[in-house]
């Protein structure tokens, strides 16, 4: 008699039933030492610029980036599991979230994420993660290449912020649809300021084509000159800070870059747009019935599927990388501490972010996108695996030109065609 595919649900339920969040929290406080708090503080220093920067890149309010870091840190830190939980935001989801916010709004994003969680839970209970092992490595590398390229190019729009402090700069030249500093009515008496880069072109071709016009207009903008100064300082700090061993041990490179850019722009009085933070709870708006009804639309179902596929593939890819590395000997119960630091900061010191230039955050994310590009992959593969290189480049081009979901589909089809072609070229010797 075949075994039920839901037999794993019962075992998972038993594990969840044994989870005692209060006991884990008491264990955290009982075994915490000064070094543990200091280590969590370092993670917090990395989480702040990344949480705020990813919120800027996705076109969502900065407050929601902080809320996501706090909630995610507490929930994942209090649950038992593997050493793969604290990994930071996924670059692929950054692009998906940006497109989803443009199409469905913030409340629609919440519904899509909830549906994605349900799908991932179901696939986990059914042990369907092994299916991702059949995906060609070239497709995965191509997706990463396309994502990194779009993330890097997309942040160039954020680097050239304008219209800061009422100055008519680059935003005025590109039109009101792009200019940062706009205020959008989110309903219920809540107004959200649109940050630089939130209204950048959505498609890859639009982003690449708009760069020429953007740079030409930037040459005549006094605001752009100040922004270039901030960008150059932030990029240099991110790249060169790790070389200073003593400084890198105390302060992470992203935090150092943001802090130096903030201090320099404030002292010099540069007219650059800065982060604006309001009340955290004011930005948390639960979705309504109309938002849930959109789950029946074909486009919404495709977006949910894209979220589930990219998030699952990203988790498995990170798991494969981490399993080949050295696992840190840390107490997992201490990991919620960085979320606690983030909560304290967001509650008591949100005004500190008012000094941070948006261009500095965009520079940090652009550097992250550049570092994530698998630039050295095609060279070694070309002599003996030209078919894999073709699949990799086709997938990357499809992701950059169309969107992430269509790019993955095109990459998979290209891999199937490549495999079929190689099968027809094989000869069996008698």
From TrEMBL:
Location in or out of the cell: Membrane
CC annotations in GO: membrane
Membrane topology: Multi-pass membrane protein
One GO BP annotation of this record: transmembrane transport
A Pfam entry, by short name: Sulfate_transp
TM stretches of this protein: 37-57, 64-84, 104-126, 138-160, 215-241, 253-272, 298-317, 338-370, 390-417
Domain SLC26A/SulP transporter residues, every copy: 35-163
UniProt keyword Transmembrane helix, yes or no: yes
Superkingdom, taxonomy of origin: Bacteria
Keywords for the protein's UniProt record, in alphabetical order: Membrane, Transmembrane, Transmembrane helix
UniProt-listed InterPro entries: SLC26A/SulP_dom, SLC26A/SulP_fam
Name the record gives this protein: SLC26A/SulP transporter domain-containing protein
């Amino acid at each position: 008699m075949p075994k039920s595919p839901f037999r794993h649900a019962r075992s998972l339920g038993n594990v969840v039933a044994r989870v005692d969040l209060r006991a884990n929290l008491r264990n955290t406080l009982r075994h915490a030492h000064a070094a543990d708090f200091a280590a969590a503080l370092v993670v917090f220093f990395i989480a702040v610029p990344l949480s705020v920067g990813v919120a800027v890149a996705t076109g969502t309010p900065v407050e929601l980036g902080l809320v996501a870091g706090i909630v995610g840190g507490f929930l994942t830190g209090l649950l038992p599991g593997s050493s793969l939980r604290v990994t930071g935001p996924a670059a692929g989801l950054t692009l998906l979230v940006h497109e989803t916010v443009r199409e469905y709004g913030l409340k629609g994003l919440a519904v899509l994420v909830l549906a994605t969680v349900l799908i991932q839970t179901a696939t986990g209970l059914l042990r369907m993660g092994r299916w991702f092992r059949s995906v060609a490595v070239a497709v995965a590398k191509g997706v990463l290449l396309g994502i990194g390229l779009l993330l890097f190019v997309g942040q160039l729009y954020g680097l050239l912020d304008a219209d800061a402090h009422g100055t008519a700069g680059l935003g005025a030249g590109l039109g009101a649809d792009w200019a940062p500093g706009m205020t959008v009515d989110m309903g219920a008496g809540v107004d959200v300021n649109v940050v630089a880069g939130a209204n950048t072109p959505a498609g890859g071709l639009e982003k690449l084509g708009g760069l020429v016009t953007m740079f030409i207009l930037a040459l005549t903008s006094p605001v752009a000159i100040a922004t270039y100064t901030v960008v150059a300082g932030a990029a240099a700090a991110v790249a060169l800070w790790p070389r200073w061993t003593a400084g890198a041990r105390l302060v992470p490179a992203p935090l150092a870059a943001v802090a130096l850019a903030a201090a320099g722009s404030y002292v010099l009085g540069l007219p650059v747009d800065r982060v604006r933070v309001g009340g955290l709870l004011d930005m948390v708006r639960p979705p309504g019935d109309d938002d849930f009804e959109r789950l029946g639309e074909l486009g919404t179902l495709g977006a949910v599927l894209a979220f589930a596929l990219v998030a699952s593939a990203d988790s498995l890819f990170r798991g494969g990388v981490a399993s080949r590395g050295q696992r840190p000997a840390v107490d997992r119960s201490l990991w919620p501490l960085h979320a606690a630091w983030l909560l304290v900061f967001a509650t008591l010191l949100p005004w500190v972010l008012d000094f941070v230039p948006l261009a500095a955050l965009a520079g940090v994310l652009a550097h992250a996108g550049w570092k994530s590009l698998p630039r050295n992959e095609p060279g070694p593969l070309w002599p003996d695996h030209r078919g894999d290189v073709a699949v990799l480049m086709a997938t990357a081009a499809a992701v950059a030109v169309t969107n992430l979901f269509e790019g993955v589909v095109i990459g998979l089809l290209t891999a199937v065609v490549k495999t079929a072609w190689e099968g027809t070229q094989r000869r069996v010797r008698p």
